[in-house]
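Example record

The entry below shows one chain as it appears in the dataset: sequence first, then structure tokens.
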Amino acid sequence: MAYEVYRILELSPSASIKEIKRSYSQLVRKYKNEDIEKFSLIRRAYEMLINSDAKAIYDSFLQIDSFLKIYQETFLHLEWEEAIQILKRIVVESPEEDEIQKLAHLLPQDKEVIEEQQTFWGYIQENHRFIKEQLGLCYISSGQWDEAIAIYEKLTTQKPEIFHYWTNLGQAYKTQADFLSQNNISQAHLYQQARECFKKAVNLEATNSKPYLEIARIYFNENSYSQAEIWAERAINADRKIDFQDFDAFCFLCLVYAKIRELNKIEELVQKIKILIPNEDAKIYASSKFIEHGDELYRIASEKSDFFEEADFSEQLYLFSVSLTFFKAAKNFNLHDDNLQKKYDKIDKLISVLNQFQKLKNDSLILDSYKKLVVLSLSDYMSIDNYIKDKDDQINLIFVEIITLSKSSINESIERFKSYYADIYNLNIQIFDKLEQSKTTQSFVALLQNRASKDTAILREEINHIVKRLYNFLPPIAEKVVLKYPSSEEFVSSFMKKLSNRITR
């Protein structure tokens, strides 16, 4: 009946009371003796609109309906602030529930009309609560938690038997707590309030896994991993059957096992999940969730950009291992994803390199300059911006250092790299090829300096011979210098100056 009142009386929503009465009289004469059912509908519609207060509520409801259609669009596009403004306008224009109830009781009708209108008023009341609930969700999504909490506390007071009112109130408390630091004294209190709300939801729908899992997540955020595991398992067993509907709980359990360093249990869970997956779409979903967690773990491990310069980065190394475990799990459900395979291979290689780098850092036979190059290679491989942005300049400065070192120390470092740190050596072969060149260049520069000190009239042909050998390292500099400076003293001086300028600029 909610959308039919005006149509039944063959009127537009802008009809006046006079027009309503006239139309009713005409329709009564037309259908009174011909169509009893139609006549009954006409009478009930008239009883609704002839009461000015009831008509005002009904008209506002029609306006609300048009606003709700706009709201749905903003909600779908995650435009929270705009959605909030629309819903607030709807709330302002909507009558309060106590007004609706009072009006419904004041309307004097027979039993049939009363039942019809009670249905309508109930629909209006439910719609009013729905609007408040949606406003609360928008407040949560936009970070306005106090406003959301105020709405859901009122809703849970009015209708304490509604399951999702309690879960939404719990979510408002939990989300607010999530944004606070662990040393904030308010966080523990908010988590406790959230937990109580979810427990009330459990009492209302014991077979619904959602509140169990939310309680598990709260314990997880509080670093209470044993409790998190217990509640996640309760979520899985809530409906007394294990199926793919429990996937999110299984996936969460994998995160718990990662925290307590039991990666073997992740492998066991993945095998259980494989049995539960019903179709290809479910496989893709499962793979995407494990990839999502793998990406997040990789991000966390990488966010401290200088971690590999610390004496011990075993925690980051473990996080990379967990990330690899999640990508391996994802591969179980999507064997033909090339991008997934590339991610897996990259992290697998990175772990091997980092393990070698842990040893290399304490290897006194490797020159410090070479260790600096390894750090740059790692940052390049991991796409760490604050290193990459001036990587070339840093590499060139390191090469200036290396050129001044003894030939024997350079030789020893290079050979040791190849023998003991092959994964690091292969990480960026181009850089280490330049190391080989720097070793040769260092010898050439020493030769030039030695010749220049013995004979200032060194033959042009000998200089050309040396320059040709230098050409592979810095051809533009060598070519320009040899044409301009015939004497070895001038040549060496100019070459070293230009080499320094070229490398450090």
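Notes for this example: The radius of gyration is 38 Å. Residues 110-114, 452-460, 467-486 have pLDDT under 50 and may be disordered.
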